[in-house]
Write a structure and sequence with these properties.
single chain, about 210 residues, alpha+beta, Umud Fragment, subunit A, 7-stranded antiparallel β-sheet, 3 helices
Amino acid sequence: MENNNISVKHYKVKVVKAKENPVKFVLGVISYAIFIWLLLLGITLLVYVGSNKIREMKGDTTPAKYNAYVVLTGSMIPNINIKDVVITKGVDPSTLKEGDVITFLSSDPRVPNITVTHRIKEVFYDSSTGKYNFRTKGDNNNTADMYLANSDNVFGKVIIRIPKLGYLQDLLATSGGWIVVVLIPCLAILSFDIMKVGKKIIGKGKKSK
């Protein structure tokens, strides 16, 4: 019986991962971050508008628990700036105190039906009516508001400030706003993903040859 001794050499194979282009990585992260932000914003707006429509259909005219308002003046600078969006929460007037920022319908006859966001400076309780009144003032104003804010006209207490989101609302209000804000970023992300998939397919094709 013949015994053949065959020597086999073992080679160490070192696998080196290709370094990913840092610019492409950053662009990918930014693209997905924008996409997620737009998705969350769209869902929030959809829920907000939908809930208001449902309330209208039911004949409910009371203010919603949560509302959003765009600040149009600089009366609250530097804490709230022009085109910031404030999110308010409806609360029991008895829980409001000095220092709280509230959004309310102005009682000033010179500017009727104007929505104002100012800070509470004093709280007054009328025992005969069981109502609260608030002396308010803009942080950037020299004097307090001339007319008190009645608790019946208070929409809510400011709980969140979103800087400059009002500019996005202005853009969305234009005819091409949705295209700029939503469609173009989505197409950019889709194109980026298609390019990645295409490169992988081409790379596999070259290896198989």
